[in-house]
Amino acid sequence: MANDLWQPAVIDPAQAGGWAVAHCHQRFLCDSNGVLFPREWLKARLPAALAEHGIGYFQGQLVFVLELAEPIDGLLPGSQWKGLRQFLLEGDISTYRMLGYAAQIGTWARQHRFCGSCGGPLQPLSGERAMLCPACGLHLYPRLSPSIIVLISRGEELLLARSPRFAAGLYSTLAGFVEPGESIEECVRREVREEVALEVDNLRYIASQNWPFPHSLMLGFHADYAGGEIVPQAEEIEDARWFRVDDLPQLPPHGAISRYLIELYLARRSGVAEPRLPG
After folding, report:
1. For the chain, which residues make up each domain, given as ranges?
2. pTM
């Protein structure tokens, strides 16, 4: 399986050799050969990294992430900085899984260089994916921020909406972040109520996907319409409407969980082979 190409692991940066990826603000340095560079060669050509962490193995080779302060252009001839979302849309799932993990660890390392309790400098904890404060003993581990995404159906229709940030003509499913103290199911109902003023029931968990947003894990659902009239949330939802299943608008690209939720629903409805969510 393609996923076997990438295996996350805790690797001591004191080990020599291996490959490295350069990360900054959800973007990765790449050139015509890809995103992996010989580690020592890359470190000799980059500004000093804020942090370096060994993240695992790609095709059996050690991989490290270098977290940079800024994504400086022109660091290497013919190189560019590419957003994590672009790797998802390109469909190389093993590379996307590796970079999704690298982005999580790089962002966590950037945000946890100093102790939030006493202000002292943090140090990587040997053998664990954790940071330790030698001064007060605080341990800090990577954390995930769960979010939901939901496709709502009503008979022959699907509820789709668009954000002002979307490409022209594109509609997608509703999504939002889980608030402290609420369950995933409560989050689905609240987000739908806030974004389009509708009520839903019969929630069915479908799948999850590492999402190209810091610390984000997207949990996908199908849900049935239970009442209400569409009222788009100001500044968040530019338009929302019911679309017949045989007359859908421009949809999100393949590889995104939003597109998978729609295609899975259509496949189950028509009895054809179900699609597979990459990853």
Report:
1. 2-111, 145-270
2. 0.85
